[in-house]
Amino acid sequence: MRLVILLLSAAALQTQASAQMLKPLRVVQLCDPQLGFGKDGFAADSARFELAIQKVNALAPDFTVIAGDMANDVNDNHAVAVFLKIKAKLKCRTVVTPGNHDLPDPVTEEGLKRYRHRFGADFSVTKTKGVTLISANTQLWRVAPEKETARQEQQLLVALKKAKSRGDKVILITHVPPFVKSADEKDQYYNIPAAKRAELLQYCADYGVCIWFAGHTHKTHRNDYNGVSILNGETTSNNFDGHPHGFRLLTLQPDGSFDWDFVELSDADMQSGNP
Q: What is the reported pTM?
């Protein structure tokens, strides 16, 4: 009798998990709040970020991803405190990815310690609805302590292999995108160095990465590379391409298709303070 109950319980859990996988995953992508970088100043950046949080809460997504650069100056403790106070109002699970403005350049042990104290882990893995979200620290792929870079490399490979063994779709989250226009472009400020870029793109092919969220460019890009959609959304601080302020809502279907909808933070919204 006990065996029958255990088997029925296991079957019920499996049915519940299968049902979850049949539901779309809704993820908000917030890029570069970077408080203090906007043309209208720190107060406007903060108000716009708070408005974004209100709109996110109204949408009630499964997750919110903040793709790095929380404050413009890594040493500005006030700006970091304001960011954290506003972020705390989010009502959904949140993944925060380190940006180049969140760590010293080059990266140091002390800088990593301070980041982790402020924002939490700089590498994370989250699983839900048949999807694994992996957030990685792109600053470790530039000039950084070797043991930290090696540790992240091991964590990344373990997470990718486990996701593949489960049959999960994978969303990779970084601040810096692999490339801006083409996979073979030269190294520059806005991309991941070529040798590492090639390795990561191969990982994407080998382990089933379907979406790659990034920030950093302050321009809206969508690049599709060998089945991976690389998505750079609008920022809440300063967009270099003239796009309005805002963020993106990804709705990922179980079959891998998705919508990537823009949610604007308009001047009228800012004046009224209503989402």
A: 0.91
